[in-house]
Amino acid sequence: MTLDEITISRAIISEQMHIMLEYMDMDVAVVGAGPSGLVCATLIAEKGLKVGLIEKKLSVGGGMWGGGMMFPRIVVQSEAKRLLDRFNIKSSEFSPGYYTASSIESVAKLTASAADAGVQFFNLTYVEDVMIKGDGKLSGLVINWQPVEATGLHVDPLTIRCRITVDATGHDAVVAHHVSKKCGKPKIVGEGTMWADNAEFAVVTHTKEVFPGLFVCGMAANAVSGGHRMGPVFGGMLLSGESAAMQILDLL
Amino acid sequence: MTLDEITISRAIISEQMHIMLEYMDMDVAVVGAGPSGLVCATLIAEKGLKVGLIEKKLSVGGGMWGGGMMFPRIVVQSEAKRLLDRFNIKSSEFSPGYYTASSIESVAKLTASAADAGVQFFNLTYVEDVMIKGDGKLSGLVINWQPVEATGLHVDPLTIRCRITVDATGHDAVVAHHVSKKCGKPKIVGEGTMWADNAEFAVVTHTKEVFPGLFVCGMAANAVSGGHRMGPVFGGMLLSGESAAMQILDLL
Amino acid sequence: MTLDEITISRAIISEQMHIMLEYMDMDVAVVGAGPSGLVCATLIAEKGLKVGLIEKKLSVGGGMWGGGMMFPRIVVQSEAKRLLDRFNIKSSEFSPGYYTASSIESVAKLTASAADAGVQFFNLTYVEDVMIKGDGKLSGLVINWQPVEATGLHVDPLTIRCRITVDATGHDAVVAHHVSKKCGKPKIVGEGTMWADNAEFAVVTHTKEVFPGLFVCGMAANAVSGGHRMGPVFGGMLLSGESAAMQILDLL
Amino acid sequence: MTLDEITISRAIISEQMHIMLEYMDMDVAVVGAGPSGLVCATLIAEKGLKVGLIEKKLSVGGGMWGGGMMFPRIVVQSEAKRLLDRFNIKSSEFSPGYYTASSIESVAKLTASAADAGVQFFNLTYVEDVMIKGDGKLSGLVINWQPVEATGLHVDPLTIRCRITVDATGHDAVVAHHVSKKCGKPKIVGEGTMWADNAEFAVVTHTKEVFPGLFVCGMAANAVSGGHRMGPVFGGMLLSGESAAMQILDLL
Amino acid sequence: MTLDEITISRAIISEQMHIMLEYMDMDVAVVGAGPSGLVCATLIAEKGLKVGLIEKKLSVGGGMWGGGMMFPRIVVQSEAKRLLDRFNIKSSEFSPGYYTASSIESVAKLTASAADAGVQFFNLTYVEDVMIKGDGKLSGLVINWQPVEATGLHVDPLTIRCRITVDATGHDAVVAHHVSKKCGKPKIVGEGTMWADNAEFAVVTHTKEVFPGLFVCGMAANAVSGGHRMGPVFGGMLLSGESAAMQILDLL
Amino acid sequence: MTLDEITISRAIISEQMHIMLEYMDMDVAVVGAGPSGLVCATLIAEKGLKVGLIEKKLSVGGGMWGGGMMFPRIVVQSEAKRLLDRFNIKSSEFSPGYYTASSIESVAKLTASAADAGVQFFNLTYVEDVMIKGDGKLSGLVINWQPVEATGLHVDPLTIRCRITVDATGHDAVVAHHVSKKCGKPKIVGEGTMWADNAEFAVVTHTKEVFPGLFVCGMAANAVSGGHRMGPVFGGMLLSGESAAMQILDLL
Amino acid sequence: MTLDEITISRAIISEQMHIMLEYMDMDVAVVGAGPSGLVCATLIAEKGLKVGLIEKKLSVGGGMWGGGMMFPRIVVQSEAKRLLDRFNIKSSEFSPGYYTASSIESVAKLTASAADAGVQFFNLTYVEDVMIKGDGKLSGLVINWQPVEATGLHVDPLTIRCRITVDATGHDAVVAHHVSKKCGKPKIVGEGTMWADNAEFAVVTHTKEVFPGLFVCGMAANAVSGGHRMGPVFGGMLLSGESAAMQILDLL
Amino acid sequence: MTLDEITISRAIISEQMHIMLEYMDMDVAVVGAGPSGLVCATLIAEKGLKVGLIEKKLSVGGGMWGGGMMFPRIVVQSEAKRLLDRFNIKSSEFSPGYYTASSIESVAKLTASAADAGVQFFNLTYVEDVMIKGDGKLSGLVINWQPVEATGLHVDPLTIRCRITVDATGHDAVVAHHVSKKCGKPKIVGEGTMWADNAEFAVVTHTKEVFPGLFVCGMAANAVSGGHRMGPVFGGMLLSGESAAMQILDLL
């Protein structure tokens, strides 16, 4: 066949335009496409809800790509081994209860599952503010292109509506900070010192609705509620994403 | 169970150390983890050869994540549709012979397949020179951490050995340029103007051994041999990666 | 009435996406929205042709805003006074044959006329390459978002088709340089020294088709053909834009 | 005619010098040439008052050029439709009560009207401090070239006098912050969350004199008084500029 | 003999990886390889304890290389002259009680002694957080590569365990600040004005355990406890390093 | 008396604008206000000619302020001692024939003399191009504000006319390079190695008219004609400035 | 004569070394070589005291070079006209009581006078801290090269001793801030709004000893004590420098 | 004893100034304080010649600190093992003929030996040009502070004289490039590809006088003469430094 560049351009614009128009109003917006966000989005979308995953970088995967200190391996404890298996990520037991996996395979498999579940990705997209109206509930996000923000251009954002927002943006807890700054709550306690064991436990406990319409999961949960810090051990991340999904599915 | 941070650290270092020691000497080094590099590495590794994929960025996927102008969709023509199917990437027909897919799903599925085939990933790794000895054959790569290069630190590189190198670094054709600069060949013709139809055809033709021990594929093939430029149409990329793999498997 | 943010977002995306889909294929693409580009685009669009004006900056107007050395005034000689009048720009005679005007009013009035004539603006859009196929004619442009280029992100461009392209990008003559680098012609002579009188005359003479499908106008004309440089005297610019429009209308 | 470069230089310096000397003392200084500032300045100048519009950038138009997320369209609600019409800006109804327009045409037409009304523009001009004397009234502005500020050069500013100042600098509310920091008032409440409907209403209510001699309008009004944030819906902006003008005309 | 690049690469990786695995758990971690850190680490390691010296820069030596204002000389008072002699650093008496030495020789000799004592160096290593568990004792450090931090890459750190940590990071007192921020103590008083005589005395007094498991020495001691500032007089630095070593050896 | 800010502003603008209008056309434009430029301008202005000194930096003095390696002293040989005396600069004999002086006093005294001679200073002014018309003679300069150039703003320059131009811009020989690039001559030989003795002699020899209307002096003379490099010995600079002045006075 | 580069180097180093050794201990250190610092240093040195002028930039003159908004003119009111005359600076009366002068001539003449009075200049020298001992009196300054600070190099400073320090560093009041931060006083009130008339009066009133051993003059006086801001009117500056000198001469 | 800051400052300035005055004229200037430069300087100074080691960075050691890819180990082959022993650097045999050592210990021990041999270090010193007079021999270096160069300040350099210069600046071969650019020779062939075995041999062969008065050693030797590249194997470096020293000692 003969390829026509203009048809290619039109195919790309047309497809994405329809997705953007459709996803201006969605059930759940997950912000941050690291491991907990990917797990959370996948599990909700698998139940048929309309889920968008908003990521400021060009690539998804968050802090997982680099493993620990650029050695691209991650560790998962026994409690979360079943989630590695569920997402078809190969692992091997290093010492009893400690499973290692390739950090790059892990990102790829979690992302592939999200795509299969019907999650729509909005990468290079930056949350610059939140929409909260008279009912005091987080009901939407104010978004812009990340390159616009990076170049300091003065360009107005657009607004999307969502019934539930999940802040999975890690240490920065970006959405929670926007809400806290404008509304005076939730109180941001801040992340504690490194204590992997405690952190892994806490991150699941801290995964909850911290403001009407806003859930936190992954390191954002600890960053908001004062949980300890963990390192390149991703079991708690996966479990936290799962926990957020379960709570939200109960709600919707 | 109780998690011990030190065991986690040791698990990560120990695992990656063994992989690094093992992959100092490999069958095929693919440089650049964009779509053509991923396809090429996967198809060779599936045949049981020892393949390393060297990527300077933290994430793999190259220019595929952003689709066309940040609209995360790609287009594939009918000739390459079977490769989308082979890698389990969902697509829909936009107009006769033009298939669209999610750019993010595409990266994830190609990467997942590479991991399943046994490809080892070395991300954040930068090729700063080449090893060519008295036999005039490219027999190894001089690598360093990309953050070392980005910060201008004066730190020496290490050298790895490989029987075959694939330059899949896109427009820059990094390895071919290193070889050309030091040895006077291959001649770098440079990429032509945009002409998607012609480019898609040419990229497969230009996928070949351009110097003893060095293959080029994907846009690097056109950048070396003067093929035309294409846009966010990735069929030629996938076919080029497949072609490089076939030629190399014939050789080894 | 009650305003709904989501309707606002959808209105903006929907309108612009339809324009983008429509303008993937246009009669004339004018690159660079300085004074000569604005005049050229306006005069062609007034005849009912489909004209797009592509500008890499957020704002149009080019080098006109700052007048001379940040004193926001421009000068126009008597020959071009009728064009100030045509675009409804107020001017006063400083000395015989020298008319001054506000640089800011000039930009605003030229832009307003272009909009009234039906010109479509594509700002923040960067021409990164050209489309030239087997017939050796410039038949399209490879475009991307300027913030993508400014942040060095690896994102693929899209391609648009146009029957005629006008390079009105000033000293840089961006499109002409892309064509010259890939095809070996047109020969770029380079701009001469300051000589306002001669330059004003030359810029109109040099306004012509320099490659099949490519016209140059404004300072780009002098930069390609070796005309002299002028200063904040914009008569030649306006006349050059007019001349390009006349020639193109004759052709189409 | 023969053009003389030196006459051109003298024409530009001489004209602008006389304007600068004249406008060292003006009736109303509007700071910020976005949509609300342009409307406000125009309506006051149309009544014959001496109005200067001070803008730190090279181009006027503020955040309007980029529309929403670089899609150059704006939306205006039915209440403000009459202002689009008044400024001759073409619009179409997207859904009942929502009118869309070209963001670029909008800037051009508002600016053209300001020029026709006799507003003098001082672009590339930065307000670095305020003049407040013993009567506790804002009676002047301390200005400098923006490129001086951007390059960190140590160059002293000049001072201009004005009976009334309008802060139309958007989210930053630059003048109000200078006054607040030096005098302890007005209290800056800070902008609220996105709530377009409420914001559009509030911005007009918050348009008022917040310190003797200082009015705020546009987003600066909400930023000072705690109004909600809006997006690329510019009706409130236009209405706010109109309101400021009405109040000031009553006063002078 | 014939040199094989791959054996060289393997030798380097293998040796350092085994050291890293071994030093994930050490007796004493000294952070900051300036003069006080080098003395402290040497004296402890000479007693047979496992000591790691963690330095964020590529080179060790801290602020000593530059002497005073880039004149590479240091001064040591008579009380510390014996330490210069102990480390084999040549000095000459400038005036009674004031000994000068080469700053570069001083760094080299202190470092050579540390290496001879068995101290292991971890350069280009950055302490980004601390490990404190339920017993409220500083029991480990969260480390990463400095180039990762400098380039802003999102890569997870690793954790090491140590019985005692010494903060010898100078004015910044990096470890003490991490502990103070997360645990509310120790209180950081901050460094006083220049008063060399008093500072030299104080720095030894302030060298102590400021938090369970954390000692401070050198300028970090004054920065935490409010001691005065000194200049390029290094006697107090050396004595402080010695004092920290004595106290820690008593404890272990 | 009571001070009025607006009168102050008007005084400054009015005075300088009149000087600018007057100096758009001058006898001699000296570009670069280092020692040779200052001497040259002074000696010509003392004869009653209209001389402007154009300097891109905020301060005049060029490379003289820093003496040698930031030790603010200069050396002058016996042949040039009379020029130190003429400009009232104190000096002392270090060894026979070598006189030292304060670099800062030297700048101040040369500048004071220039002011007394009636030289007009245009600082922060950048020469971005040259005016050469049909007679092939350098007859003017294209100037802009240096902060405009430093910030990359797109603002047009203005043009000034001068009978003679002196390039005293040091190693860069800015004006000579502009002329050479546009006209193919003068040939720029480039500066030789350090050889103070020879350089001091050569710089006077090389001080001459290198293109119709263009003289070079100071290091620019050596940079154009291949003279050797000198160090912080300023005798040749002063003598070269004197020589240029003599030649130009002969001519005018 | 024949010039020897090495003699030149030795002359410069030797001369400056002796000055540096001598000025490690001086009567009065004036920090900041703007107009008030220059006047103050000159008047004290004329009485035979040992005065050093410490300036962080390469050139002296502070904010005076640029006049107002890059128009290199200053204004002085009638009360300070006698100081212009004393320093031999030409001026002309713009309107009754307002005298204008060249900003560049003003810097040159003030600096020349300082040199003639015997002031020693230390340019490129940065005050990074203060020396205050047990008697609670500012008795010295901790200095470093400015390029060391600008490049972030870790190089120790040196200390100089002075009986009296004058902070003439303008808006930043650098020395006063160091003292205030370390000792809790003087209280820094901060500069008020622009009010030239009041400021000119206040700056002389606020010129005083604000901490044992520390005087403030020029804008630093207003910045410490809450005086109003002035613009490019330098009469108050000169009067303040004179006042500081008078008070210090009374004291010593 | 009581410490006096001023005595400390004077001690440092006085000592270093005398060294600088003495070393303005030396026997051998070694440029670049990496391993080959350190060995070369040490071996010459041990014979009683006056040797200065000029290093642009704050620390000496060059590329040795970082080992290979930030793993701080180096490898030395059997031929150079005796040099490790001579400089008292501990090593262990990894495999037959391959010895590993700590990169940090290596730098420290080489530097300590240089200091003991009487080498004078000039760190933060940058060679910006060369002195070559009528005899066509490299007879001196034009030096400046590195921070002056890094901040782009316009400050003149000083010149030092030396009978022999050694370029040990690694890949950049800084001195050889300055000489080549100004004199047309030596011809710079450029470094070849990685081939450790060949490179180690070649580097010693290429260590020679390449221009009257100029020797190259270490990687600079290969960079000038076209030798191959090596990695973190430092045997050739040490042998090359030794060879340069032997040749120079024969000459002097």
Any low-confidence stretches of chain A, pLDDT <50, length ≥5? none
Number of domains of chain A: 1
What is the straight-line distance between the termini of chain A? 48 Å
Instruction: Please provide the ordered H/E string of secondary-structure elements of chain A.
Output: HEHEEHEEHEEEHEHHEEHH
Overall SS class of chain A: alpha/beta
Total number of helices of chain A: 9
Radius of gyration of chain A over all CA atoms, rounded: 18 Å
CATH superfamily of chain A: FAD/NAD(P)-binding domain
In CATH's first tier, which class of chain A applies? Alpha Beta
- Kindly report the CATH topology of chain A: FAD/NAD(P)-binding domain
Helix content of chain A: 25-40%
Query: Do you know the CATH architecture of chain A?
Result: 3-Layer(bba) Sandwich
Multimerization state:
homooctamer
Largest interface (C-beta under 8 Å)? C-D, 63 and 63 residues
Q: Look at the structure and give the mean pLDDT of chain A.
A: 94
| SS elements, strand count of chain A | 11
- Sheet with most strands of chain A: 8 strands, mixed
Give a structural overview.
Eight copies of one chain form a homooctamer. By secondary structure, chain A is α/β, with parallel strands linked by helices. The first copy, chain A, has a single domain (25-251), classed as FAD/NAD(P)-binding domain. Helix content of chain A is 39%, strand content 24%. Chain A has helices at 5-22, 35-45, 81-86, 103-117, 146-150, 174-183, 196-205, 219-225, 235-251, and strands at residues 25-31, 51-54, 73-77, 92-95, 98-102, 120-122, 125-132, 138-145, 158-167, 208-211, 214-216. In chain A, the strands form two sheets. In chain A, strands 1, 2, 6, 7, 8, 9, 10 and 11 form an eight-stranded mixed β-sheet that branches. A three-stranded antiparallel β-sheet of chain A has the order 3-5-4. In chain A, strand 10 and strand 11 form a beta hairpin. In chain A, helix 2 (35-45) runs parallel beside helix 4 (103-117) and helix 7 runs parallel beside helix 9 (235-251). The longest helix of chain A has 18 residues, at 5-22. The radius of gyration of chain A is 18 Å and the shape is globular. Chain A starts with a helix and ends with a helix. The mean pLDDT of chain A is 94. Chains in contact: A-B, A-C, A-D, A-E, B-C, B-E, B-H, C-D, C-F, D-F, D-G, E-G, E-H, F-G, F-H, G-H.
